[in-house]
Amino acid sequence: MPADTFPAGRMAGVHASPVYLDRDQTVDKVAALVAEAARGGARVVAFAEGFLPGFPIWCLVQRPIDQHGQFEQLFANSVQVPGSYTERLAQIARSNDVYLSIGVTERGPVSMGQLFNTNLIFDPAGKLVSHHRKLVATWAERLVWSHGDGAGLGVIDTDIGRLGVLICGENTNPLARYALMAQGEQVHIATWPPVWPFKRGGDGEAYRRWIEVRSAAHAFEAKVFALSVAAHLDEATILGCADGDAEVEKVLRAAPPAVSLALGPDGNLIGDSIQGEEGILFLDVDVARSIAPKMAHDVVGGYQRFDVFGVTLNKRRQAPIRLVGDHVDATAPAGGTAGETEEASG
């Protein structure tokens, strides 16, 4: 009887810029780039954090009092899940026979003005198989996005292995990373914004180093293949975010650009990286390469003490209200998205 074989295949990270705060044109660009990646043999195609309709860099560099117009524009171009734009994304996955992972700004189902930093994955049949909201908005992002929850913090089965995704700073969170490891993650996607202007004047290669360190740490500790996918900062985004403010424009131009890169289960870089220009980064995955390294360190297996440490993951979708009882208000909006419902128990 022949020995077992294990998943293998190609994935692609798209290092590109969205069409700034334009939902329709950005989806059109996604369609073209996914088709290009699929022609290159990719079975999984990944886009950056908040790619649709664009990461709100302005929240990091504009004064809060000056952000109202851009926030309203972002909300008007945000994505309802499910909705017409998720159907367009599903069709892109179907027509190219790929798993499509993409960061979106999701419109909250209840409160007018609420947004989430969300990553969606569609399978080759166009089914939405992962809907993860970023657990904690980072720093000034809290002016834009609400906290997410653990409902989408999991892995999915794909042709190239069990796939997990974390959004930006979640790749710094040991518990979030461990949660994916403990659910059998074999392939990891980490998503990032095009720049992170944390202080004035930039900091050389600091942002690249932050991405490399966090991506390599997870690849090495989990013994997984990791693809870090960032967006590209184009001229239209710089001018749109600056909104005529010369000082803000100066800060954005000085900010070091993000990098997209690939790593193996040993934590080492694989192939070239992409920084400062658009492109598609391919990574060939063979999960069998994760087997031997776990002889030394398997932190969710033989190199762990479950009698000493314990981790609990709450996968309940958080809602603003929990409805208890068996009465249904006929005047309430349909859809069941506003809150959880529990039947009365006598």
Give the gist of this structure.
This protein has helices at about 25-40, 60, 70-75, 85-95, 175-180, 205-220, 235-240, 245-255; strands at about 10-15, 40-45, 100-105, 115-120, 130-135, 155-160, 160-165, 185-190, 225-230, 260-265, 275, 280-285, 320-325, 340. With about 350 residues, the chain is an alpha/beta fold.
Description:
The chain has a single domain, classed as Nitrilase/N-carbamoyl-D-aminoacid amidohydrolase, CATH 3.60.110. The termini are far apart. The C terminus is likely disordered. The protein is globular and about 65 Å long. The chain is built from 8 helices and 14 strands. α1 packs parallel to α4. The relative contact order is 0.16. The protein is α/β, with parallel strands linked by helices. A 6-stranded mixed sheet has the order 5-4-3-2-1-12. A 6-stranded mixed sheet has the order 6-7-8-9-10-11, covered by helices on one side. A two-stranded parallel sheet has the order 13-14.
Helix content: 10-25%
CATH topology: Nitrilase/N-carbamoyl-D-aminoacid amidohydrolase
Named at the architecture level, the CATH assignment is 4-Layer Sandwich
Question: CATH superfamily, called what?
Answer: Carbon-nitrogen hydrolase
Structural class: alpha/beta
Strand order of the largest sheet: 5-4-3-2-1-12
Low-confidence stretches: 341-346
Report the strand count. 14
| CATH class term | Alpha Beta
The rounded Rg comes to: 20 Å
Number of domain units: 1
The average pLDDT score comes to: 95
**What is the distance, rounded to the nearest whole angstrom, between the alpha carbons of the first and last residues?**
58 Å
The ordered H/E elements are: EHEHHHEEEEEHEHEHHEEEEE
| Biggest beta-sheet profile | 6 strands, mixed
- How big a fraction of the residues is strand? 15-25%
